[in-house]
Design goal:
Length: 133
């Protein structure tokens, strides 16, 4: 069941809300950027994400295939969300669960995690080792 959550970056310059089913899969990826900053997203459709404030405070970072847009607050450096494309070309938003202001720790503890091998652009398989993610 989807619920509307509110989130922000660390300094509060960026605020958003997103309709997320935390009981659906959340993701951990071993690509170079996700593993370095411990990005833990829930994936939502574009209509389920709303940036409420801070558009001008965001910095976009692209690398590798440039298929995924990584957004950071230019003040505090926190990555509240990203915009990507599925292998079929559909736009998706990755909402960083660590940036949700009103999620209960119990909800996070019970969230199922799907591990993906982004390091090898293999989004349908888990990497061989996941314990560090």
């Amino acid at each position: 069941m989807r619920k509307t959550y509110h989130g922000s970056c660390h300094c509060g310059a960026i605020h958003f809300e997103a309709d997320i089913d935390i009981r659906a899969n959340t993701y951990r990826c071993n690509c170079s950027i996700c593993s370095r900053n411990r990005f833990w997203p829930a994936i939502v459709a574009p209509g389920a994400f709303r940036l409420l404030s801070g558009q001008s405070d965001l910095t976009k970072y692209l690398f590798n295939t440039k298929r995924h847009e990584h957004y950071f607050c230019k003040h505090c450096g926190v990555r509240p969300f990203g915009i990507g494309r599925t292998p079929e070309g559909h736009q998706i938003y990755g909402v960083n669960l660590g940036c949700l202001d009103d999620v209960a720790p119990k909800e996070l503890a019970e969230a199922p995690i799907l591990y993906v091998d982004g390091q090898h652009d293999n989004w349908s398989a888990a990497p061989l080792v996941t314990s560090y993610l």
